[in-house]
Design goal:
Blueprint lengths: L10 H4 L10 H9 L38 H11 L12 E10 L18 E10 L14 E9 L2 E8 L12 H8 L15 H9 L4 H7 L14 E2 L4 E4 L5 E10 L8 H10 L3 H11 L5 E10 L24 E11 L4 H6 L12 E2 L4 H17 L83 H8 L3 H16 L4 H15 L1 H11 L37 E5 L6 H12 L4 E6 L5 E2 L5 E2 L3 E2 L10 E3 L4 H9 L1 H12 L3 E4 L1 H7 L7 E3 L3 H12 L7 H5 L4
Helix pairs in contact: 4-5, 5-13, 6-11, 12-14, 13-14, 16-18
Bound molecules: CIS-heme D hydroxychlorin gamma-spirolactone 17R, 18S (HDE).
C-alpha cells in the first residue's frame, strides 16, 4: 500500500504552490500566452538588446574591403542561423498541428476520477499533432501511410497525452521489435529510396516474415492509409488503458476519436498525384479549415471492459495487434474536441511539442501491453536528443497549466530561476516544501493502480498473442466490395514494386493465403504468381462474421458538405447570374466554392463584367476538390470544350468519381452520361442533387463507367 504522509499539504495551504489549483488555470494560460512574441512596433535589436542601425551590410574595411571579425551583429545573426535546425523525429517527422479544446459531455466519475472528465462546464485546452510515419519532414502529405493522431490535454491535474494513430492496431506486439520494424519501413539504406512509402523490398521482407504484422498491414493497404483530410480520420489510442474511479475501481478501456466530418479517403491515383502537385495538401487543408472557421470536431469515446471480463474475448486485451469489435463493445461517448486555432509559429509549437504516452493524470493508468510498456521509455528518451536536454517540459508548448514544483534542478536550457535554498526532500530549511500529496478522491497525488504480479522473469510471448490472422480476415471480410478492390490493388501495387520474387511469393502464400484465399488469388494474379490453394496455418476465426464499424463507408459524418471544396470552372463568356446562383447555393451549405479560370487573370462574363478568379485550373487541379461545377454560358462552354486543360479537369474529376454539375453541351462533348452525381443545369434541384452526391463523398455507382476514362 502507498505510504500516507501525515505532513502533506492541506488544500488551502498548498494553493498556488504545489497542488493543482483550478482557479489558477486561466492565469496560467495567460502566462503561456506571454511567450508569444509580436514584434509589431518594436525596434530591431540583437539578442543582447542592442538596437541595430544597419541590417543590410557587414562591417568591412572599406566598402570593397574584407569583412571584420569584430562585427558582433553579423556573427550573432549567422551563428544563430547555423543552429536553426534540430533533429527531426525518427518516426512521425512529417506533421502539422492545431490548438483547440476538449469538453466533457457530463460527469464520468463512475468511470474515472480524472478531473477533465468530471465537469461539462470545464474547458480543457488541447494541442493536436497529426503526422505520417515513414517520411522525413519535407515529405508528401498524401503518401500511403499510417497517420499519427497525438493529443496533449493541458488538464488542471497535469498533462495527459493520448498519443495514438488513425488505425486501431499496430505492426508488432513487443517494443523490442520496433527498431527492426522502423528500419525495414524507412527508405532503403543504400540509396534512401523510397521517401514516404512502404512499397519496397525491406518493408515487405520484414512483414512477410513477421505474421503478427498481418492485421495492421491490412489496415495500411486499405483506404484508411490515404485519408482525404486529417479532419476526416478516426483516431485510436491503440493499447488497452485503465480508467480508475475515486473508489479505486478500474475498467479496461480503448480510446476512440470519431470525426464529425465523417471518415473519408482519397483515391490512390489522387493521393499519388497530390504528393507531387501539393506536398502540403493535408496541412493546408487543416490550416485553411480552421482559418475559415470550419472547426473540425471529434467525439472522444471509450470501449469499456470491466476488469472481471478481461479474459472473455477470443484475443488478448494486452495484444496491440487486436481491436475490440465495436459490435461486441460499443463506444461510449465521453466528450468532444474542437480544433479552433492554428499555431502562430510552426517550429515553436508543432516541431517542439513533445508527446509521451507516459504523461497521464490520476484516474488513468497503463496496462501490461508490452508495446505500451516500451513506449513509456522511448518518448522521453528521444526528446533528450531531439530537444537537447531534460528541460523540454519548460518549452511553452509542452508546459503544463498545472503548477509543477519539484527538486529537479539545472541542466541544459534551464528557464526557471528556482528560489529557495533546499532542492531536496525531506528538508527543514524551506519548511519541507514542496511536499507529497497523498492519493485522494479528487486533487490527490498520482497513485499507480495496484496490480498483483506473480510470475517468473522470462523473455517469452504469451500464447494468447498467437493468432495473427483472425482479425485481419475479419477486417477484409467487413469491407464493402469497393474497399476490398482497393485493398487488392494496394497489395498488388506495393508488391509489384518489390524486386525480389521470393518476398512477393512469401507475402502471398504465407500471409495473404491465411487471411483470405480470394484476396491472395487476386493479388497473385496481378503479380503473375500461382494462386495459393490453402493457407499455411489453422486460423481459428473470429466470433463475428463481420464488423460493419470497420468499413469507413459506414461513417458518413454529420456535417453535410460543410468545408468541402468545390471548383467552379469559368471561361470568357460565362453567365454571371449562373455563377452567382451556384456559388450562393453552395455557400448556403457552408461548402467552399472556388472560382477557377484558364489562367489566374479575371474572366470576362457574357454581360461584360470582369469576374476575378481564385486560381487557375492548372494551379489548382481537380484532385484538390470534392466536386466540380460548370455554370451556364454558351461561349464559356465552347471555350472549356476547346481547352485541353479544362477537359482534363472535368474528365479527371469524373474518373475520380466526384460529383459534377455540367452544361449539357460540355457533357455531350466529353462523352459523359448523366448519373447520380453527374448533373446538368444550374437550378435548385440540380444543386440539391449535387450536394447529396458530395455528401456521399464519391459516386461509387460510376466506378465501372469511369474505368474506361484515361487517368
Ligand atoms: Fe511512437 N514514437 N513508438 N507509436 N509515435 C514516436 O517519439 C515508439 C507507437 C506515435 O506528433 C517517437 O517524439 C516506440 C504506437 C505518434 O510528436 C518515438 C514504439 C503508436 C508519434 C516513438 C512506438 C505510436 C510517435 C518519435 C513501439 C500508436 C508522433 C518522436 C514500442 C498508438 C508524436 C517522438 C508527435 C512518435 C517510439 C509505437 C504513435 C521514437 C518505441 C503503437 C502519433 O519515441
Amino acid at each position: 500500500m502507498p505510504s500516507k504522509k501525515t505532513d502533506a499539504p492541506k488544500q488551502s495551504e498548498a494553493a498556488g504552490t504545489q497542488t493543482p489549483d483550478r482557479a489558477n488555470t486561466n492565469a496560467k494560460l495567460q502566462s503561456l500566452e506571454a511567450d508569444r512574441s509580436d514584434a509589431t512596433g518594436h525596434a530591431l535589436r540583437t539578442n543582447q538588446g542592442v538596437r541595430i542601425a544597419d541590417n543590410q551590410n557587414t562591417l568591412k574595411a572599406g566598402d570593397r574591403g574584407p569583412s571584420l571579425l569584430e562585427d558582433f551583429i553579423m556573427r550573432e545573426k549567422i551563428t544563430h542561423f547555423d543552429h536553426e535546425r534540430i533533429p527531426e523525429r525518427i518516426v512521425h517527422a512529417r506533421g502539422t498541428g492545431a490548438h483547440g479544446f476538449f469538453q466533457s459531455y457530463g460527469n464520468h466519475a463512475e468511470l474515472t476520477k480524472a478531473g477533465f472528465l468530471q465537469d461539462p462546464e470545464k474547458i480543457t485546452p488541447v494541442f493536436v499533432r497529426f503526422s505520417t510515419v515513414q517520411g522525413p519532414r519535407g515529405s508528401g502529405d498524401t503518401v500511403r501511410d499510417v497517420r499519427g493522431f497525438a493529443v496533449k490535454f493541458y488538464t488542471d491535474e497535469g498533462n495527459f497525452d493520448l498519443v495514438g494513430n488513425n488505425m486501431p492496431v499496430f505492426f508488432i506486439q513487443d517494443a523490442i521489435k520496433f527498431p527492426d520494424f522502423v528500419h525495414a519501413v524507412k527508405p532503403e539504406p543504400h540509396n534512401e529510396i523510397p521517401t514516404g512509402g512502404s512499397a519496397h523490398d525491406t518493408f515487405w521482407d520484414f512483414v512477410s516474415l513477421v505474421p503478427e504484422s498481418a492485421h495492421m498491414v491490412m489496415w495500411a493497404m486499405s483506404d484508411r492509409a490515404i485519408p482525404r483530410s486529417l479532419r476526416m480520420m478516426e483516431g485510436f489510442g491503440v493499447h488497452t488503458f485503465r480508467l480508475i474511479n475515486a473508489e479505486g475501481v478500474a475498467s479496461f478501456v480503448k480510446f476512440h476519436w470519431k470525426p464529425k466530418q465523417g471518415v473519408h479517403s482519397l483515391l490512390w491515383d489522387e493521393a499519388q498525384k497530390l504528393a507531387g502537385k501539393d506536398t502540403d495538401f493535408q496541412r493546408r487543408d487543416l490550416c485553411e479549415a480552421i482559418e475559415t472557421g470550419d472547426y473540425p470536431e471529434w467525439e472522444l469515446g471509450v470501449q469499456i471492459v470491466p476488469e472481471a471480463d478481461e479474459h472473455t474475448f477470443d484475443f488478448d486485451l494486452l495484444d496491440p495487434t487486436k481491436l475490440i469489435p465495436e459490435e461486441l463493445v460499443p463506444v461510449t461517448p465521453l466528450g468532444k474536441m474542437v480544433l479552433n486555432r492554428n499555431p502562430d509559429n510552426f517550429f515553436a509549437e508543432v516541431e517542439q511539442v513533445a508527446f509521451c504516452p507516459g504523461h497521464i493524470v490520476p484516474g488513468i493508468d497503463f496496462t501490461n501491453d508490452p508495446l505500451l510498456q516500451g513506449r513509456l521509455f522511448s518518448y522521453t528518451d528521444t526528446q533528450l536528443s531531439r530537444l537537447g536536454g531534460p528541460n523540454f517540459h519548460q518549452i511553452p508548448i509542452n508546459r503544463p497549466v498545472a503548477p509543477n514544483h519539484n527538486n529537479q534542478r539545472d541542466a541544459l536550457h534551464q528557464h526557471v530561476v528556482h528560489k529557495g535554498r533546499a532542492s531536496y526532500e525531506p528538508n527543514s530549511i524551506d519548511g519541507g516544501w514542496p511536499k507529497e500529496t497523498p492519493p485522494a478522491a479528487q486533487d490527490g497525488g498520482f497513485e499507480s493502480y495496484q496490480e498483483r504480479v506473480d510470475a517468473y522473469k522470462i523473455r517469452q510471448r504469451s500464447e494468447s498473442f498467437g493468432d495473427h490472422f483472425s482479425q485481419a480476415r475479419l477486417f477484409f471480410q467487413s469491407m464493402s466490395p469497393t474497399e476490398q478492390q482497393h485493398i487488392i490493388k494496394a497489395y498488388s501495387f506495393e508488391l509489384g514494386k518489390v524486386e525480389r520474387e521470393a518476398i512477393r511469393a512469401r507475402e502471398v502464400n504465407e500471409i495473404l493465403a491465411n487471411i483470405d484465399l480470394k484476396l491472395a488469388a487476386a493479388v497473385a494474379a496481378n503479380l503473375g504468381l500461382p494462386a495459393p490453394k490453402a493457407g499455411t496455418v489453422q486460423v481459428k476465426g473470429s466470433k463475428l462474421a463481420e464488423s460493419p464499424a470497420l468499413s469507413q463507408m459506414n461513417h458518413p459524418g454529420v456535417v453535410g458538405i460543410k468545408g468541402r471544396k468545390i471548383a467552379v470552372l469559368l471561361a470568357n463568356g460565362v453567365d454571371a447570374a449562373s455563377v452567382d446562383r451556384l456559388v450562393k447555393a453552395l455557400e448556403a451549405h457552408s461548402a467552399r466554392p472556388m472560382l477557377l479560370g484558364p489562367t489566374s487573370a479575371p474572366v470576362k462574363a457574357a454581360d461584360g463584367k470582369q469576374l476575378p478568379v481564385d486560381a487557375s485550373m492548372e494551379g489548382m487541379p481537380s484532385i484538390m476538390f470534392d466536386g466540380i461545377v460548370v455554370p451556364a454560358g454558351k461561349a464559356s462552354t465552347d471555350a472549356l470544350a476547346a481547352s485541353g486543360l479544362a477537359k482534363h479537369f472535368v474528365l479527371e474529376g469524373y474518373k475520380h468519381l466526384k460529383a459534377l454539375v455540367l452544361t449539357k453541351e460540355l457533357a455531350t462533348g466529353l462523352g459523359l452520361k448523366e448519373d447520380k452525381g453527374l448533373l446538368l443545369g444550374d437550378d435548385q434541384k440540380t444543386v440539391d442533387a449535387f450536394v447529396k452526391a458530395v455528401e456521399g463523398h464519391r459516386v461509387w455507382e460510376r466506378e465501372a463507367a469511369a474505368e474506361a476514362v484515361p487517368a
